[in-house]
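Weekly puzzle thread! Below is a chain. First person to post its structure in token form gets bragging rights.
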Amino acid sequence: MRVLFINTVIKDGSTGNIMFNLQEKFRQYGHDTLFFYGRESHSEIRRARKITPAVELYINVLFTRLFGLNSVKAPISSIKLKRYIKQFNPDAVVLGNLHGYYINENYLFKLLKVFNIPVYYYMFDEYAYHGKCTYAGDCKKYKNGCGDCPKLGDYPKTFYDCSKAMFSDKKRNYSSLDSLFFISTPQNCRRALDSPIFSEKEKNVLSCAWGIDVKSVYKPTDPSDVIKELGIDTQKPIVLSINPLSDLRKNVKEVFFKAANVCKNSQIQFVHVGNDEPEAEIPGNCISLPYIADQEKLSKICTLADAFIMTSKEDTYPTVCLISQACGTPIIGFNSSGIPDTACPETAKLFPADDLDSLISYVKTIDKKTDEASRKCREYALENFDFETKAIDLIKRMEEEVQHAKSCYNRG
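Winning reply:
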């Protein structure tokens, strides 16, 4: 098969790494692939094309801010998209995030309709079934077609409400493709089916999520060098958080730093990864590190921790929860959004989204994790988060769907 991948980024962040690894798995199984992306630059990656120049990206951001339509123009990337797709002539397409100011979504679906091939859309967040937002929180307007959006200030930020028009566009785009399948977490699939956008696509919503490399990358790893580098006392409980400090939806300051301040007189050590605000005020009992690209080092830090706090209340399927448990560390967080779908029921501790006080009170009681807890976390990750198992299932399904599509075309 020739399989085309499209995502905002490649090999950056959780979605960029998931999509890149998925592409590599397809190649390992003998399939030809090509990856289109819109942000950052990775010219060293073979079989990948950046389709959005920086100047157009900035124009798209401005256009979205002013008029509310997500990258609806994007002429340069649209030209590249058409040329590259025709040259590659894919048998199937895998979509990741389409938001991010890099692609003309309506034009993309027109092209896909012409090719009439199977399309698999990973719903990494909630954007696919909302008019504008990537996460709706408590908003239920998506159940009735959006409009009068109460979250214009949230990403993708805008001054003008076009959520109803974009909702209608998505419904039309999706209904135009016969073989369009949506892949996501149980929580996301349930919410998607509440949206009128999916009224004709119920059978095409696949609840199987995605995974991580729990066998060779994210696993219990000797943290000796990290202990020495950070000067950590391993006799004390270590509590970890991995989320961008600047992303307000992640709530690092409101949850993790607040917990650290409340526990300032305890023996607990707090470690945060994802400090992209060098001038931010960090609690005295907290080590705050920048983003760590080295995934082996990240695994060492996760192995070292005794508990991982998922600070966000709105996350479809937070990869950091998968990584933490794959490395043998239990999670603490909120019983909201897709977070429960990631939690080992025997070791995780989840609290109502509005009960931060109880979460912090629990953090104050944290002790060193037991070998039994680590074993249960690891076993749960191997059983539920294995990327290779999920990728192979997708490859087999796609092979069958492509063969079916070709046979129908030949009969026609």
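Puzzle host: Confirmed. Bonus trivia for everyone else. The two ends are 21 Å apart (CA to CA).
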